[in-house]
Amino acid sequence: MTEVSKAERELGSAFLPRFDAAGLVIAIAVDAATKDILMVAFMDREALDKTLETGLAHFHSRSRGKLWLKGETSGHFLRVQEMRVDCDQDALQLTVIPEGPACHTGARSCFYRRLDGDTLVRIEE
């Protein structure tokens, strides 16, 4: 595998995702309409390729150790409108149109609580 220079990765125009030692990159799903962060997950090469191919957010499930299509059981798909890449290409921002709640708890976002001192307080949506 050819080594990519820091300048090429950070300043060039080639998409050169930098997967960690486990073969993953962070993926942050952001609501296209509200700009709220809906969820944070991980993608491996397979999930990234499937997302680019289908326009539906796919992730790598660390707990199951396999490809996961968001919405495959709930029907709450995330339709990717745009993908942004951070400066060193080790994190992705997916601008999405959610088809239902993003969180497995049924909340619109996985970020449905705020920290108040040492207590979690549910945010009313």
TrEMBL record:
<dbReference type="InterPro" id="IPR038019">
    <property type="entry name" value="PRib_AMP_CycHydrolase_sf"/>
</dbReference>
<dbReference type="InterPro" id="IPR026660">
    <property type="entry name" value="PRA-CH"/>
</dbReference>
<comment type="pathway">
    <text>Amino-acid biosynthesis; L-histidine biosynthesis; L-histidine from 5-phospho-alpha-D-ribose 1-diphosphate: step 2/9.</text>
</comment>
<comment type="similarity">
    <text>In the N-terminal section; belongs to the PRA-CH family.</text>
</comment>
<feature type="domain" description="Phosphoribosyl-AMP cyclohydrolase">
    <location>
        <begin position="39"/>
        <end position="112"/>
    </location>
</feature>
<dbReference type="GO" id="GO:0000105">
    <property type="term" value="P:L-histidine biosynthetic process"/>
</dbReference>
<feature type="binding site">
    <location>
        <position position="90"/>
    </location>
    <ligand>
        <name>Mg(2+)</name>
    </ligand>
</feature>
<keyword id="KW-0862">Zinc</keyword>
<feature type="binding site">
    <location>
        <position position="86"/>
    </location>
    <ligand>
        <name>Mg(2+)</name>
    </ligand>
</feature>
<keyword id="KW-0479">Metal-binding</keyword>
<dbReference type="GO" id="GO:0004636">
    <property type="term" value="F:phosphoribosyl-ATP diphosphatase activity"/>
</dbReference>
<comment type="subunit">
    <text>Homodimer.</text>
</comment>
<keyword id="KW-0028">Amino-acid biosynthesis</keyword>
<protein>
    <recommendedName>
        <fullName>Phosphoribosyl-AMP cyclohydrolase</fullName>
        <ecNumber>3.5.4.19</ecNumber>
    </recommendedName>
</protein>
<keyword id="KW-0460">Magnesium</keyword>
<keyword id="KW-0378">Hydrolase</keyword>
<comment type="function">
    <text>Catalyzes the hydrolysis of the adenine ring of phosphoribosyl-AMP.</text>
</comment>
<dbReference type="InterPro" id="IPR002496">
    <property type="entry name" value="PRib_AMP_CycHydrolase_dom"/>
</dbReference>
<feature type="binding site">
    <location>
        <position position="88"/>
    </location>
    <ligand>
        <name>Mg(2+)</name>
    </ligand>
</feature>
<comment type="similarity">
    <text>Belongs to the PRA-CH family.</text>
</comment>
<dbReference type="GO" id="GO:0008270">
    <property type="term" value="F:zinc ion binding"/>
</dbReference>
<feature type="binding site">
    <location>
        <position position="87"/>
    </location>
    <ligand>
        <name>Zn(2+)</name>
    </ligand>
</feature>
<keyword id="KW-0963">Cytoplasm</keyword>
<comment type="pathway">
    <text>Amino-acid biosynthesis; L-histidine biosynthesis; L-histidine from 5-phospho-alpha-D-ribose 1-diphosphate: step 3/9.</text>
</comment>
<dbReference type="GO" id="GO:0004635">
    <property type="term" value="F:phosphoribosyl-AMP cyclohydrolase activity"/>
</dbReference>
<dbReference type="Pfam" id="PF01502">
    <property type="entry name" value="PRA-CH"/>
</dbReference>
<dbReference type="GO" id="GO:0005737">
    <property type="term" value="C:cytoplasm"/>
</dbReference>
<keyword id="KW-0368">Histidine biosynthesis</keyword>
<feature type="binding site">
    <location>
        <position position="103"/>
    </location>
    <ligand>
        <name>Zn(2+)</name>
    </ligand>
</feature>
<feature type="binding site">
    <location>
        <position position="110"/>
    </location>
    <ligand>
        <name>Zn(2+)</name>
    </ligand>
</feature>
<dbReference type="GO" id="GO:0000287">
    <property type="term" value="F:magnesium ion binding"/>
</dbReference>
